Amino acid sequence: MRQQKSVFNIIFIGFNLKNLKKKKINKLMPPKKSKIHINENELKENNDNNKENIIKQQINEGKYQIIDKSFEVLEPFFQKIEQRKGFGMKEAIIYHSEIFDLYIKLDTGINEELNNYIKQKIEERITKLFNYFSEFVMQKSLDKFVSSLRDTLDLIKIVSPEIIRVFSSYDESVGINEQVTTLIKRKRIEFIKSIKDKMDIIDKLVEVWRLSRKGESVDVSVVCDVLEFYKEYLPSLQEYKKMSKEFYDTLIIKSIDKYKEISDVYYQNGLKKYLELFGCFYCEEKDRIKRGRIDNNVEEILLTNLLKIIKKQENKVNSSIEEIVRDKNFALLKRIDELFIENNQETVLNNTVKSIKSLLLNMIIGKISLDNIKESVELIIEIFNLWKQFFHCFNCKGKAKMENLFKEVLIEQSNYINDKDNIIIPTLLSRYINLIIRKNSMVCVDSDSVNNTIEIVFKIGEFIVNKDIFCHFICKNFIERLILMNSNEENEEILMKHMRNFDRLGVMKMIKIQTEYNQSIGYSQQYSQESKSNNFNCLVFGGLNVYLKDKYQMKIDSMTTERFDSFTRFYIKKKPTQKLTMCLEKSSGIIKYNQKYFITATLPQMMILLLFNTHNILKISEIALDLNLPSSFVKNAISGIIHKQVLCQNTSLIENETQVSVNTNFNLKVRKISVMMVLKKLISQTQQEQIKKDDNDEDEILKLRENLLKCTIVRIMKHSKVMSCQQLIQQTITVVQKTFKAHVNVIRRVIEILIDQNFLMRDGQDIQYVA
């Protein structure tokens, strides 16, 4: 075929095609004419037939040139495919259509020779494209092979229909579309088979896994992509199955060998290093298997063999767990959980939980006491935080086992100190919150630390057995802070926020208490105006006085008695439906001393100070007799006054015969003084135990629980009407178990009380509700 130089200066939508390359056609040759030129003089000299043949020949020759030029125009389109710079598809199709518009106009009929020439040109260019694909993919380094193969497979999928679209401009009679579709499909099959045979694709895919295990940045998901592509494009499913089986068999054999090799190498560095390194490898391998999307059966085989390697070290791990827990090596515990516990190694799980429990018990047993509230609760918080760190080392199975461990530790601590009703720890927590919240707290100095500490205490409260006791003391301490004017509003808001999430009923009580407190201030102001008395205020808490009660019949002076009676009459007029009972022991006030000091104290402490208006020296026993209070209570109250140096005693410890007098040398820069209730260092150990016994709220708590049981039983029976005694007991225990652990004997006693009160009646073995 002739070679022809020509220049196309065609500009169309981004194409500026100049000096296109020469094209050679080696197989089918067009007629040997070099230019399209029709000589009119020559036509005139020939007969009509010769004229027609010459025109046809020259027209055909022009078509060959058009076809050559159209492929030259398409060359940038194919180059863009090869260079992966975008296809320029729109421009290629539009311009190619224009070229073939000219071809169609010049066509005078079907020309088999010309059609074969077109098909040959198409096959030559597509063959060149797929040869380029093969050269591009067959790189020496594996990472380039993997990435280029995946890119090329994706490219072939995208390009194939687009190439067919480019050649859709030919006349349908030429049959180009069908020929191009068949050609691309055949070339695609030849390409993938060629890559498979020439590049040892099985070894290459296995090598991907090996490199990934070495830590190189190779994505194993490409293996699945390659296999899926071969599944789609190999000539037969049988051929694909043979290929995939060969790959998976090779992968399994080499993987098992690799697992053994890695395990042996890591163990040479010691057990702890083995857990750290092999645990890391195990997690990565599991993730690798998941990302690799390999066959389910192969995945199971790989994981099973991996677990067999791990299982061999179980005994050695069991013997080292206690040391790992003692060292608080959380990183290794996470590896133990991943390698053993999550793979159903119950022995390892039980030994781990046992070691953690032993560590926590050793930290707490014998170190919790009501005498050291701050130190005791801070120790509980430390143990709780440590338990949380251990807890977060585990996943599903380990967490399920660890969930109640902290609660078990608290129960064992209660059993150790013979606290059968589990009262001491809730009491400690509530008193600690009281220390935090009150004014001038020495526990927390800013609102952030108050918030964080209260939040942790309430989280601990979720694990205590008797939440009702904890909430009871929270409310009671709240009232006492209001009475002693020792409440910090900002801290109270923080308490309310956390209490709302813990016990909504308790928050409602506290809100009601706060409301009554604010109302009482208003009533006190009205009373002062009407009675023209400016030194009397009374705080009223209405029906919530259940939290406050007098244990002793304390004597108070006549003036104070008259003030209380006068305010009671005033209050009843304002709220005739409200029952009002005075609680003298829990009352407080401000007493003026030496005309310049203002002492905030409880009413018993105020009565003690007033006695020194008529006496210079008094014995403890004499004060107790005058106020009709136990000497232990007096020692409790007066110790705080002595600590502030308002009074002084003649002995180091306060005894019944200790003489107390006013401190004539008292001199402080501050004018406002708050007196605490008890200072234990001034009281002997025996007397402290007596004070503790006197202050015990156990009877009050038991009464509250009894009332709760009554309400629960009546509610159950009102719904069920008739129920066996055993069923009623079981259902009652279930209902109240979130609040406290009810004893069967107590429930039986409450049932008998309700029968006596005609709420229930017996009918043989059953209990009936009486409407």
Structure description:
With 771 residues, this protein is mostly helical. Among the domains are: 10-198, no CATH class; 587-696, Ribosomal Protein S5, domain 2; 698-769, Winged helix-like DNA-binding domain superfamily/Winged helix DNA-binding domain (Arc Repressor Mutant, subunit A), CATH 1.10.10. The protein has 30 helices and 11 strands. The strands form 4 sheets. It has a 3-stranded mixed beta sheet. Helix 18 (424-437) runs antiparallel to helix 19 (447-461). The longest helix has 36 residues, at 48-83. The radius of gyration is 48 Å and the shape is elongated. It starts with 9 loop residues before the first strand and ends with a strand. The model is unreliable at 1-49 and 102-109 (pLDDT under 50). It comes from Entamoeba histolytica HM-1:IMSS-B.
Write a concise synopsis of the structure shown.
The chain is mostly helical. The chain has 30 helices and eleven strands. Among the domains are: 10-198, no CATH class; 587-696, Cullin, Chain C, Domain 2 (Ribosomal Protein S5, domain 2, 2-Layer Sandwich); 698-769, Winged helix-like DNA-binding domain superfamily/Winged helix DNA-binding domain (Arc Repressor Mutant, subunit A, Orthogonal Bundle), CATH 1.10.10.10.
Write the layout of secondary structure elements.
Blueprint: E1 10-12, E2 15-17, H1 40-45, H2 48-83, H3 89-106, H4 112-137, H5 142-166, H6 176-198, H7 201-213, H8 221-233, H9 237-267, H10 271-292, H11 296-311, H12 314-326, H13 330-339, H14 346-364, H15 373-391, H16 396-402, H17 405-416, H18 424-437, H19 447-461, H20 467-483, H21 489-502, H22 504-531, H23 558-574, E3 588-593, E4 597-602, H24 603-611, E5 617-619, H25 620-627, H26 631-643, E6 647-649, E7 659-662, E8 672-674, H27 685-694, H28 698-720, E9 722-724, H29 725-736, H30 744-756, E10 760-763, E11 766-769
Parallel strand pairs: 4-8
Antiparallel strand pairs: 1-2, 3-4, 5-7, 6-7, 9-11, 10-11
Helix pairs in contact: 2-3, 2-4, 4-6, 5-6, 5-8, 7-9, 9-10, 9-11, 10-11, 10-13, 12-13, 12-14, 14-15, 14-17, 15-18, 18-19, 18-20, 19-21, 20-22, 21-22, 25-26, 28-29, 28-30
